[in-house]
Request: fold
Amino acid sequence: MGGAAARLPALVLAAVVAASCAAKAPVRPSGTAAPAPDAVSHFDALTTHCAGLRTMTAELSLSGHAGDQRVGGRVIAGLERGGSVRLEGVAPFGAPLFILAARSERATLLLPRDHRVLDDAPVAQVVERLTGLALSADDLLQALGGCVGAGAAANGRQWPGGWEAVEVSGQRTVLMRQQAGAWQLTAVDAGGWQADYRLVRNGVPREVRLRSADGRVDFSAAVQQLEMNTSIDAAAFEISIPPDAEPISLDELKSVAPLRTP
Reply:
């Protein structure tokens, strides 16, 4: 790899590096599960907003770690159902540190300050290179919106301590917990990644903790300036590639990610 590619970690890290300590693993139910006939209806009631969810825009404040690297910073996100996403890593000044834009789960990643571009790659693979978690555009929309598996729940279960769970599509499990007499959406176990929710308002979490199953990647996203179902200009999901941008492959990006020093 050339000198420009060797500087990629600094570009990505500049978007996300900050001091933060790894938190303890989130709480999960323990003991033997029993059938919970009402769990599906509880889940459906908590996700009524999901049927009409088309778009979401937000500012995400990140903190946590990916591997041995502490991470943090701000990302401006725009998401539209059907695999469209735009993510911009906010710099203290000047051009964004990175821009990811995609339609139908096919992404372009531009690193403006290093004049490098990755074109036409699966969103989940690009996000995995950047964060360590293989999240598609629709995964991001559903996870941030508290909508994973909405409308497709089955097999309700319960545990002592006010816990319930349902199975949803893709062999994923959504957990709920009764708090102050009301059920709250609590977590998603999606196989390779997990989401834990705090500050849930009207079914939508304002803080989402995303983790790999092995705990190696673990960071929280505070969801700020949230707007749902507003119109997003179609041009937001496209990038005009500068003529002087040099290509980088997915394999090259993998060699410098997720978020580690050279």
In short: The longest strand covers residues 55-66. Residues 3-21+31-254 form a domain with the outer membrane lipoprotein receptor (LolB), chain A fold (CATH 2.50.20.10). The chain is about 15% helix and 40% strand.
